[in-house]
Design brief:
single chain; mainly alpha; 434 Repressor (Amino-terminal Domain); Serine Threonine Protein Phosphatase 5, Tetratricopeptide repeat; 3 domains; 20 helices
């Protein structure tokens, strides 16, 4: 840890302008005890640590030389490093994540990013086949689960469970623990609107704190939009054609331009592809290909929004929840995310037997080329 506690105690006492005898009197102990601490011959009793920290106007963490939690910039850098290492050399990446977790076991924000990095890696590893995990994918899931559960434990008033719940539930399902997932979800469904944000904003406004009121309302509005679009995305494969058309209209209304599309850019491509899938068995091929073209258009727009996101001005008070200004690492991560999204859709079209009747049509190859991440393939 660097400086030993005896050296720290001697330095803090000196900086406070106290003699050993004065420090001892404040703490209700003998001067000899203080001397032994500072010479490294003994350690303070644990019950005295709060009083010592108060006496020297410091914290218990500082007494032991504990490093401050990393700032947002450091956390983002660690996340990007983890993603890069995991993608290039899984074992090296896993060692890096473990080190970060070990050194920052009390930093909720960093742990959240490390858990997210591991979770994103699971489908790419050996042993991931759509069923129960095996081999590397199972090991990665175990590591991610440990971190995610720690984030939940550290998060105040249940905030962690709402943020980390989808990832944790997915891991439980991937590892055959459906009952545990059901128990975790039991009672979680919200059956009525949450008006707390509006009430809190009203209190701020009545006290003349308009900026604070706006921040509360903007955060609540953004969360509501994300929840609505997430629910819509989950509904897409479950509804009939008429309801799917209604979902399309609602999605278009909720993201009327690129600004709002950047909040949840993958919603519209998912809807458009489902519309094409619903047509493939019962509709003339021309109509199916028109639907596939609409899907490709939506995917292009989504990828553009992911590559060059624009924050809606209505959320200027909560920009911490939106895309940050891009540096080279963020730009690279965005490009990688776009490439992975395109590759996932290419794989869906190439491997789903639903499209077998269209594979000999040149237009199907054109759709594949259009949605591919390869510039050569798209020409």
């Amino acid at each position: 840890m660097g400086t030993r506690i005896n050296e720290t105690l001697a330095r803090l006492r000196s900086e406070s302008g106290l003699t050993q005898e004065e420090a001892a009197n404040h703490l209700g102990i003998t001067k000899a005890a203080v001397s032994k601490w500072e010479c490294g011959q003994s350690m303070p009793d644990i019950s005295l640590l709060p009083a010592i920290a108060d006496l020297y106007s410091t914290s218990i963490d500082d007494l032991f030389g504990r490093v401050q939690e990393p700032d947002k910039e450091s956390i983002n850098a660690a996340y990007q490093t983890a993603l890069a290492l995991l993608g290039e050399d899984y074992d090296a990446g896993l060692d890096y994540v473990r080190q970060q977790v070990r050194e920052n076991w009390t930093c909720c924000d960093l742990l959240r990013m490390m858990g997210a990095a591991l979770f994103a890696q699971i489908p790419k590893l050996r042993g991931f086949n759509g069923g129960l995990l095996e081999d590397e994918s199972l090991q990665c899931a175990d590591e991610a689960e440990r971190i995610i559960r720690r984030v939940i434990d550290l998060s105040p008033s249940g905030a962690g469970i709402s943020v980390e719940l989808p990832s944790l539930i997915r891991i439980l399902l991937w590892t055959g623990r459906e009952r545990e997932a059901e128990k975790l979800l039991d009672g979680y469904e919200r059956k009525e609107p949450n008006l707390q944000a509006a009430l809190l904003a009203q209190l701020h406004r009545e006290a003349g704190r308009n900026e604070e009121a706006l921040a509360v309302l903007q955060r609540a509005l953004l969360v509501s939009l994300l929840e609505a679009q997430s629910a819509m995305a989950a509904m897409v494969p479950m509804v009939d054609d008429s309801r799917l058309a209604e979902l399309t209209d609602l999605a278009a209304a909720l993201q009327p331009d690129k600004t709002f599309a950047s909040i949840f850019p993958t919603l519209m491509p998912a809807i458009r592809l489902q519309q094409a899938k619903n047509l493939v068995r019962t509709t003339p091929t021309d109509a199916v290909f028109r639907a596939l073209d609409a899907f490709a258009d939506a995917l292009d727009e989504a990828c553009d929004a992911m590559s060059n996101p624009v924050n809606p001005s209505i959320f200027d008070k909560v920009e911490d929840m939106l895309w940050d200004d891009a540096d080279d690492e963020v730009t690279c991560a965005r490009s990688k995310g776009v490439a992975e999204l395109r590759a996932a859709y290419v794989s869906t079209l190439e491997n789903d037997r639903l499209w077998d009747s269209l594979r000999d049509d040149v237009r199907f190859c054109q759709v594949i080329a259009r949605i591919s991440d390869s510039p050569k393939a798209r020409r």
